[in-house]
Amino acid sequence: MHKVAVVGAGAAGALTAVQLMRQADRLGRAVGVWLIDPGGRTGPGVAYGTADPRHLLNVPAGRMSAFPDDPDHFLRWLTQRDPHAAPGDFVPRRVYGEYLTDLVERTAGACTHARLHRVRDEVVAVRGQGAGAVLRLAGRGEVRVDAAVLALGSLAPAQDWAGAALRQSGRFVADPWAPGALDGPAGEGDVLLVGTGLTMVDVAGTLARPDRVVHAVSRHGLLPQEHLPVAAPPAEAPPELDGSLGLEVLRRNVRRHLSATRRACGDWRPGLDGLRPVTAALWQQLPVPDRVRFLQEDLRVWEVHRHRMAPATAAVLRGLLASGRVRTGAGQLVGAVPVGDAVEVALSDGTRLRVSAVVNCTGAPAGPPGTVNPLVRCLLECGYGRTGPAGLGLDTAGDGRLLPAAGAPALRLWTVGAARRGNLLETTAVPEIRAQAAEVAGNVLETLADRRPPAPADRYGQRLSTSPEAAELYDRALERILAGRLGAEELLAQAVAVDPGFAVGHAALALLGHERGGAGPAPGALTRARRAAAVRADDRERSFVAAVDACLTGTEERGKKALLGHIAAHPRDALAVSAAVPTVSFNGVTGAEEAWALVEGLSAAYGDDWWYLGQLAFVRQEQQRWEEAEALSCRALAAEPSAGHAVHARTHVYYETGEHRAGLAWLDEWLLRHGAGACHRSHISWHAALHELSLDDRPALLRRYHRELSASQVSGGRLLADSAALLWRARMTGSWSGDLPVAELLHAAPQQWLAAPATGFAALHGALALAAAGDLDALARLRAHASAHQQAVFAQVIAPLCDALSAVVREDWQEAVRLLWPLLPLVARTGASKAQQEVVEETLLHALIASGEYDRAARLLAARLDRRPSPLDRRRLDAVRERRAGWRSPAVVGGVTEYTRSA
Question: What φ, ψ does residue 132 adopt, rounded to 5°?
Fold first, then answer.
């Protein structure tokens, strides 16, 4: 007999246990269901455990069936007790609790194959054992099961807002639904309720009486709306609702839908009810940063309209408000001092109150960060689970199975109810929970009946539709991509050779080939990815292939929308995230603030993962938050010393803060230890050369180039992005004597970067290399390619840059200055880092000095020195200022700017 635990015996747990028993019995399978909860009753839980008959359901009886395939089940049960019950009645919540208790008992008695075991204890920890799990109980016992479903209800966080003094005073009611909670201090004088949602409405109704005032405050002060006495049918959601277009567009289209419903039906409620079937899909389509914004800016307004009061409850509240026995407002608790038999509280609006108790009515929290639930803490600490998207609940697959942290084993653990808020947003009402209970029960039983090993997954839990051998090769390749190590393409080629139908493997090869800037395997790999995805792939894999396809073959906007939409639905797809953010590995589809928001919004999905910490460190250095960037990169490097993004971030911190000698020493040490296997080794060498350039150390710069950046040491696009770019910068700063050895670089570099680059990043560096070679004809051809390109960055940045560089080659300095100035704020659109963008500023400085515009050159140099100390810029600024005081005009000799005093 298989053993399945259901942890939690409230509504979600009861419905799940019932579904497990019913479905197992229908299939003729022997299953033991262990329903574990410390409570004395099965079914009511917190939501339906109240004994106060004034506490009503906020959903009509006709919509409260326990079974999605039998919508009248509760109504039939109700009419057996009350023949006058109607579908539109809002019955007492305790009655629904009795229904759930009766349902569990009747199902257990009727089943012949399934057996129910009720354990009145609390699960405080879990560990894996074989394919199953061992649940540790607070009473020191253990339950070994083949699978478990967690029905934990709201994941209550530590209530730090109340302050230690208040929490320990005996006058703080942390849980108003605990038995007898409202009979103590809250039953004496005036009280303060913190929160103004549905919990407050019920508690206020219980506590209100003529000789006391019930105060209620929340951050917004908004009260729940009420249901219409006679509900209208939902208005179907319009097809143009699309979360992938962003929060602003979604807000606008939802408002239009509600306005249209109001005009057609006379009320907005049918329009909002019509959103219920599509809410989860819209939430999953939203980019993660927009989900965070929604929680901060829109959630409370959404909740007071979405979760409404029964008409009778609303009437009671209106009477209490009119009489002054209940007073509500917007504010936050900022201070609470116990004084004798009362508490003196201070609110954020300046109000001071003396109350007998403070009652927590904040409702369903986000969880789980800071959660007080020991089982959830165990899941997160052991990696068996991870925080859900946008920091809400626990992260789950589409079937409700818990997703583990990177590198942790995946146990047979599912969850239902409030813990899935991060993935679904709306997941606490019976219509959603009953559907989840039925689905999860079916998935659990199917998994237990399946003798095949679980499908392989990558290090972040993303399922891979391929063989275990190909999956292992792919995962090794993914690690190398994320770490910036060599050999990823070779491993991917092996993976698709092992399994030619491996869609994600082909798509990853296509993506890398495109990013390398040459035709290479990309077109053929993309075609094979499309074919494979049509035959064997899940929704996540098909979405990834479609996003790669859009990025490689579509317009810039189409590719960006597809990739960000995929990440919104699958935030743990680290390869997709890497492709979206400009790094040493990828050009990216986002820039500046948009890239920052994307990375910051993924913190809940990745936690302390070393790759993510490196990504976040790079964001922090771009935001000039140097200390944070340094700390994050050090944490990442402690976990993975070769972590490419962390190395890159720390490198930028050294450079941007002017710590040239310390940065150079650290980089040389890292290159010695880890440089041989780094695919971005030449880029790190380029950074070391920038320090030498800034230190005005010409001999060291020349040695660095010949030792680490010459054509014999570098390959692929790095020949242009690192080696040729350094040569051009050295010429522009007067740091190179003689001819530039650029011909050998152009001969070995990818010709597509020079003639028909696929990305703005490749085009930028191709143009610089052609300028270094003095090839005006090739610059003209690149300009023509840029002018005809469909991506906006080519026409707006690359084409005018080609004109400006041509002017520099012709030594038409005034024309060069005229064309270069407007480009300074636009170069970031190519995906180049700030340090890479500086090459255009260096070119402008060279042109200003050569054209005799010393005032403008001095201002630009002074601004650079304010930003970052540099012996090179100090020498140049002194020379320009001396020229203004009577020195002879600097001459450009052999590409070197020379300064000599007039006679």
Answer: -105, -155
